[in-house]
Design goal:
The structure is a single chain. The protein is an alpha/beta fold. 34% of the residues lie in helices and 23% in strands. The strands form 2 sheets. It has a 7-stranded mixed beta sheet with strand order 3-2-1-4-5-6-7, with helices on one face. A two-stranded antiparallel sheet has the order 8-9. α1 runs parallel beside α6 (175-199). The chain is globular, with a radius of gyration of 17 Å. The two termini are 15 Å apart.
């Protein structure tokens, strides 16, 4: 954050188990993330275990399911209202299987980050989420995969890249074993690191949408 001593407020959006949310919670507790706190956890899935993780950590958890709305526009409006009401500085998509609507992307330029379980630009875009990403990587026969933290823009998985971590693909890997290794060796490490760098004001994006990280 540019203002000295200001604590950056995070909104963490989740859809499933919440292992990346837990990595953020743990990193804040261990002071591996400096100057940031989770203001709210939002899930589009009422059965997401991530909401239980939020409760266990004493965090505000909100379920906002688009299935309960008569139109996506109304859902998007309420989602933005919630984010605005918590005065969040950074939106973190931590396993959120929902594309951010344009009105939220426009309202939070370079203030939304996502963790993707591959080395963008490989195995990203439409249909590349969850185990599908690892299925595609194994079907292509790549020897290295990994994870990417990037800013979110109007195009799916196309925003400026902040951090990447490579992970070796091993002989006999299944989508499940590769997913687990990438989570453990990459996702749970670089997502908290990216948040820490942003909170410390070390991340900038130039006119060519290239990210620069200050020492």
């Amino acid at each position: 954050m540019s203002e000295e001593n200001k604590t950056m407020k995070l909104a963490v959006l989740v859809s499933g188990g919440g292992t990346n949310l837990q990595a953020i919670i743990d990193a804040i507790a261990k002071k591996q993330i400096h100057g940031a706190e989770i203001a709210v956890v939002i899930s589009n899935n009422e059965n997401a275990y991530a909401l239980k993780r939020a409760e266990a950590a004493g965090l505000m958890g909100i379920c906002l399911s688009p299935k309960k709305y008569d139109s996506r526009d109304n859902f998007n409006h309420d989602l933005k209202d919630i984010l605005d009401s918590f005065h969040v500085d950074l939106i973190v998509l931590a396993g959120c299987l929902m594309q951010m609507p344009p009105e939220i992307v426009d309202a939070y330029p370079n203030r939304i980050i996502n963790i993707h379980p591959a080395l963008i630009p490989s195995f990203c875009g439409k249909g590349c989420y969850g185990l599908h990403v690892h299925e595609k990587a194994l079907a292509r026969g790549v020897k290295v995969s990994g994870a990417t933290v990037h800013f979110v823009n109007s195009d799916l998985d196309a925003g400026p890249i902040i951090l990447q971590q490579a992970v070796n693909v091993e002989e006999g890997d299944t989508p499940e074993t590769l997913q687990k290794r990438i989570m453990e060796q990459a996702e749970w490490k670089i997502l908290p690191k990216a948040i820490d760098l942003i909170a410390q004001g070390k991340v900038s994006v130039d006119e060519n949408n290239i990210v620069h990280i200050a020492k």
